[in-house]
Design brief:
This protein is of the alpha/beta class. It is 37% helix and 17% strand. It has two domains: 3-129, Rossmann fold; 143-314, Glycogen Phosphorylase B (Rossmann fold, 3-Layer(aba) Sandwich), CATH 3.40.50.2000. The chain has twelve helices and eleven strands. The strands form two sheets. The protein has a six-stranded parallel β-sheet with strand order 8-7-6-9-10-11, sandwiched between helices. Helix 2 runs parallel beside helix 6 (117-129) and helix 7 crosses helix 10 (227-235). The longest helix is centred in the middle third of the chain and has 14 residues, at 177-190.
Length: 315
Amino acid sequence: MKVLVIQTRYGIGDMLIFLPYLKAISQKTGVKISILAKATSKANELFKDENFLDEIIKLDSANDKILGFSKLSKEIKSKNFDKVFIFNGSIRYRLLALFSGIKEIYQYPFFISKDVIFQTAKVFTENYVNKILSTQPELTLNPKTIAEAKKRFNLTRDVKNIVLGISASGPTKRWDIENYINLAIKLNKIQNCKFIIAASKDDQEIIDKIINSEIGKNCFSLENLSIKEILPVIKNCDLYIGNDTSFMHISSALGIKSISIFVDSPAYSYSGYSDNIIAIVPIGETLESTSHDTLGKEKISFEEVFEKAKKYLIN
């Protein structure tokens, strides 16, 4: 039997949220699954050490949208899948499954929107596997790569290794960089710390601000590393503090406590699935009310972030 899962959300965090359900489908069907996913989800790097995965079929500019439908359907048909699980309500992907000759089709209700991402996926998968599932992703890594990263970056237990997730998908989602600098300085006075700056090459300006600051000598940045190189680095860390980013979801999936600042994104949808995520929202907002267009970066309590970080730093 061959099984396809279609999960076409854009981000790394989205893909990790679906991890428990991918594993559950593989376990229930008794086979490794194939996943149709966007390249931006980095599923091939995230899941390189997982044993539930057969292959990643990349959804890109050549086979996506209406113009790429014929090419994609031919590719899917050639693989002779018996079952497909479609984690969205798109008619296009139902037609893709039908045109590809897949006999068993399981899909979200058509036109579903504004759902809580992890809850919809949980109910959908539980209806098939017929058991209650945890929403907590648990990402598997090769112990050898963890040990190599520990040695390469000198991630010893003599200090607390803290991931600073300063990046974000836009300026309205990013807590001010001066807050992170002041937070790092203050935490380092309590406990010797090494700060791992989780950001991309597009964030060079704010990376440089930290590196050139008073705390810069205690920092190094991940902007030149691939996701597969970043994973074992984060696994060696003690704590994540940062914005709602892919690095937050990675940290959570690797079992790292993650103090996560939500200023302009759906806090419950992107934190409620994991006990490892400790969400901080703007003053006057709740997990349920903080969403797109909250624009609350100036309403985050520095003292709340510091106190929660101190709690998990000392424990």
